What does this fold into?
Amino acid sequence: MNTNGIFLMLLSMATFAVADTLIKICGSYLTPAQIMFFLISGGLLLFGLIALVQGENLNEPRAFVPILLLRYCTEVIGLVGMVMALTYVPLSTVGAITQASPILVAVGAVFFLKETISWRRWSSIGFGFLGVVLVIQPGAESMDLAVVWPVLTLVAFSVRDLVTRLTPPDIASASLATYTMVFALPCAIAWVLFNGDNFFPAGVNWTLVVIMVVLGSLGYLLLIASLRVGELSAVMPFRYSRIVFLLVLGVLVFGERPSASMLVGASLIIVSGVYIMLRERVLKRRSQEKVDA
It folds into this structure.
């Protein structure tokens, strides 16, 4: 089962990477607000349809309890940051920074969920943040201030993942995704109106837009499927393959040339994140053995 889960996770990350590439391409003739509107409205249609087909109850009275509202807000902020980042920042840089989320979640779990972690994982977290610093290169003359967008995405998605641990576990994934899109759509519409953009501008390659929306939603569904098919501790480390996919696509599609500092930083992020996940697997196994004994 873990093999199937790993395959689905790799497929999910590859799908996300292609969707990210299409967002960057569409950014040449669409504003970030327009891209956000298409992603949200398309996602709402797809997730809502999937929820209905699966027989899920979309009339959930807990859909807008405070903890879920916080999750929706962080999701929207993360999506805005991601679209802006993919529009203005090299693809490989976006991938490296945003995939440091599990490292930030581990820190957040200590301060907000009162979890205890060993010095080994603290060391790994330190190396992970060093990797982020090497990718961003603060203070360097070549530093692009637009890098604030992937950093914002990193923080927002980390808070979202942290909050997700506190959400009702019995609410189905497709329903939760649908509620998120319902919350995000007015925000996307307001952004388009504030910018004075057209909702359906002329001269748009609608084929690319549709593929972008479908792949973005498909990647999410594959991600959920991978976590349900395989063990979390076995499958999650392969989410870092997204960095590799984005690095390759950045070079092939946009002619990016990642610096040595960026490559070293991305490697530290991957190693740190995988180690944290593997340590969690070991600790859970030990905890389970104590319970069984």
